[in-house]
Hints:
disordered N terminus; 8 strands; alpha+beta; ph1033 like fold; 242 residues; two-stranded antiparallel ribbon
Amino acid sequence: MPWPSRKRDKGAVADKKEPDAKIAKTEEEASDEEEEEKSTKPPAGGSKSGWKNWKKTKESDSGGEESKITYCHWLLKSEPESRLEKGVDVKFSIDDLKAQPNQTTCWDGVRNYQARNFLRAMKLGQQAFFYHSNCKEPGIVGIVKIVKEAYPDHTQFDQKDPHYDSSSRKENPKWSMVDVQFVRMTKRFIPLSEIKTHHLAHKTDGGPLKNMMLFTRQRLSIQPLTKEEFDFVLSLEEEKPH
């Protein structure tokens, strides 16, 4: 029995002119069901204790060339609120994941070449943030891990699925998916607005979030994170919300 279709973000045009990071981008971008973040809250204050107390490690960024950055963690966007797409509700929250057998599901429905390439780069056991998107207050709600590496996405061949792709062939599938398993909820909800505050501060002082793809390529529903980015964002769960 196939897993329910993974809940992608609202339709958007992906980054057609930007090179892929670490994974070679060789095809034209297709439209991915992604969002333009709805958080309209202006960043309040500075980065405060987060970056001041952060022990800076060796940075892998060299002259802004993303190809030299090593990504080992991920951020996966999914919609926690109901929205119909071709008659199908694409809602899928972290609570929906927790309700799945063994708290595991496939991450299907990605229809953007760069995001697909990131899926194909994921390795068994790597962790990712589960990010609630296209909602009143977007942000990180939990952590999942990759429990099965990339394999063909079955929804591309299902004519009843909103992510059906008539141009994809079973002998050479265009689209891939991975299986993810719930690890835990973050100790608190980490909103986009708070992460953005740190990102803006780090752009000035050279902190770990200065090039975070959540802000440089915000429309991608699958995003890589460096160890420094992942560890810094994870440290925010220990802080009181500003």
